[in-house]
Each structure stands twice: as structure tokens, then as C-alpha cells.
Amino acid sequence: MPFSELIGKILHLRRSRSTTTPATKEAPAAPARVSAGPTGAQRRAISAQAPLRAAETTLDFELVNNTTSSTVYAYITGQALDNNSALFLLQADGQTAYYPSSPSSVGSALSADCAIPLGAPGSSKKVTIPHLAGARIWFAVDAPLTFLLNPGPALVEPAVTNPSDPNIDTTWGFAEFTWNSAQLYANITYVDFFCLPIALTLTNAAGSTQHVAGSDANGLATVCQGLEAQSAADGAPWSSLIVKNSSGGYLRALSPNDGIVTNSALFQDYYARYVDSVWAHYAAATLSVDTQASYGTLSGRVDGDALVVGNERFARPSAADIFSCSTGPFANASGSAERNAIIPRLAAAFNRSTLLKEEVTPAETSASYYKEEVTNHYSRIVHEANLDARGYAFPYDDVAPNGGGDQSGSVFDGAPVLLRVAVGGNGASA
């Protein structure tokens, strides 16, 4: 399994468990994602980039305020790999670690100030982190974020699907990363929602750079207007994903998965016609699923009312199954290793609606993505709003053919020197 896909799966599991945890309930004792390190082609790519800097135990990040606000805060959270995977937050000075102790009650306040001020527009702040897994760089504009603690300790994070969350009216977003002894892996994400433009630039020991552009400063308006236009075109509830602030302006756009969490009536039968067409097509045709793993390429045909791929049977997915990539036939908690290799490729093909365009998944070219009337238009619109068309827009958006272009908006290197993370989109470029 490619490392990027492994990280995508782990990040997806973490999102489904922690980001919707209200402060009144006990959170899991620890986040659900842990990096297992690079494998396969990605290990070879790292080897070709630069020598590993395994002796390094800290890494610098440069956090840049490219908004128009002078009140921007950053936060860094994760699991400290060199400290028994303890819950970690970086304090406001950008240098001091904070390892919370387990509180006696749910919803307890942090005992350290972890809001890192970025200063005026155009300014930057250099911070230093240890090895971290399941980590996030959070940004909040015009107001700080509230993080709470539950026994464990477990971090209660901001959640856009919890109407009682203290951050529900705040403008905020995040990028994700893991840094271990093998490499730094980071990505921008819109899997839960779109709010703030975030860009990444990674520099390694050889001086080479990788860049993920994000959107420009008008990215949120572009996405929300695209959702409104799509609702006008097909009558589906895409515009219901838009969240507005008290002044009537755009605050964020929820992903369809998070939209369904807030309103289970959304998109109930949205994919039914497309799924019926896929089932009818593969009753006669053969689908090739490249697992990009030891199982090789597996053949798929409809048998009765199931799509059979290799030794695995898949029932018809609902829209909620497709958008979440983790329920119904795509639930993989107890599946076989073969099934777990198939699921990302099928889930990606349904989100991108490529199964009637190409009889192979991953589809051979991104030119076939989102071309059907029924598709994940949120993902399409988000990719179009990004200057380089990259960024996780659904949980398995890192699925790509061998040698194919990146969709997920990720950077990775075995010898990182500096990760520059810019928020706001002003001056953004591909």
C-alpha cells in the first residue's frame, strides 16, 4: 500500500472519531491514526530526494499570515512519538511542549496558552516541533480557538458538525502532517469542510522544494458560489452545505459527508441512478481494480445484486456510504486485507464517477473525473478552486494510478528542513 494512501486511511479514521466529539462526551483515549512510515514506491522516491536526517529530533515550521487580519492564531497538536505517543500541544511561544495531564472531568480547560499569534498581515512566525503523528496545524482568524480536555487525556477539538461547539462561529481551518524518523508527510484537507485557504511549501536538505498552492483569497466564495450554481443546475442540496455567519456572509462550506451528519435527509437517493447504471454495466462488462498491492489487478462483475471483486462482495452503496467512504460496503474495520485494498479504489471511483467512463480503477487519467451529472460536485468544485487543483476533498482522494498526478495536495520528504504553511490565500500561486 502506498504510504500516502496509508496516511489517508489513518487520517480518515481519525476524522470519523475525533472531530465530531462534543465536549459533553468522553473522547477516545488517543487519536486513531499513527504513521507506519513509507513503503514501496514512496520509499524509493524519498531515497532519491535526499539522504535521511534520522538524527534530527526537531523540525522548524514557518507559519505565515497571508490574511487581511492582524488577529490570526495558530495551534499545533498531535501525538509525540518520542514521548510514548503522549498528547502534545505547542505553547504560544512556538517552542515549548505542553503535555496535558488527564483531567478529572470532561470538558476541562487547557492549563497552558497554546494560541500562537502570527502578527500583522504578511508576517510569519517560526516554530519548532518534535516528531509527531496524527498532527494538525490549526489556524483561526479574528478569534482564538477553544480546545478542551477529557479524561485520558483526550483532546476535544473544534467541530463544525456540533452546533454547541464553542468554535462554531469562528473562521478556522487546518492542515495535517506526520513527522517521524522516516519522513515528513503533510497535506491540505477539505474532507470535512472548506473555510481558509492554506498553502504548503516544503524545503529539504538539498534545497529542493515541493509546493501545494491552495486557493486564492477568494477561495471560499468561489466554492460557495459553485455549490449554489450546482444546486440551481440539478436541484440537489449542494447549497445546503453552505454555512453563513451572523452577517450573512460565507463562513464555511461543509463536505457532503459532514452535511449528512448535520442533516441526515440530505442526498438520500442522490447516487441511486448512477449506482443502478454501474450495476447494469458490470452485469455484462468486467471491471479491473488495480489494488496497487500484492493482490495485483482484480476482476469485478455483478453477481446477483452484489459487485464481486476478487473474493469480495460489495452491496450497492448509498450516497452516505460513498461520501463517507467508510460505511456500508466501504466499512473496513473487520474486512480482509484484500477487501481493504479494494475499498479505497472503489470509493474513489464512485466519488469521481469514473466507473462508466473507464472500466479500470484507479482511472487512468484525471480527465475522466467528475464528468457525470451525478458525482461528488463538492469535490469537483473544491479542486477547481485550488490554484493547482490539489487538496483532499474526500477521504480517499489520494487514490491515483501508478505514475499519476497527485490530487491530495500532499508534500513529503525524508530530509525535511523547513515546512512553510501560509494561511489566507493572499499572494497564493501555483
Automatic annotation (TrEMBL):
Keyword Methyltransferase assigned? no
Q: Which PANTHER family match?
A: GLUCANASE B, PTHR38165
Q: Which InterPro entries match?
A: Glyco_hydro_64, Glyco_hydro_64_fam, Glyco_hydro_64_N_2, Osmotin/thaumatin-like_sf
- UniProt lists compositionally biased (Low complexity) regions at 19-32
Q: What is this protein called?
A: Glycoside hydrolase family 64 protein
Region of interest called Disordered, as start-end residue ranges on this chain: 16-49
Residues covered by the GH64 domain: 56-410
MF-aspect GO terms: hydrolase activity
Protein origin, superkingdom = Eukaryota
Asked whether the keyword Transferase is assigned, the reply is no
Keyword set, alphabetical order: Hydrolase
Instruction: Name its species.
Output: Aplosporella prunicola CBS 121167
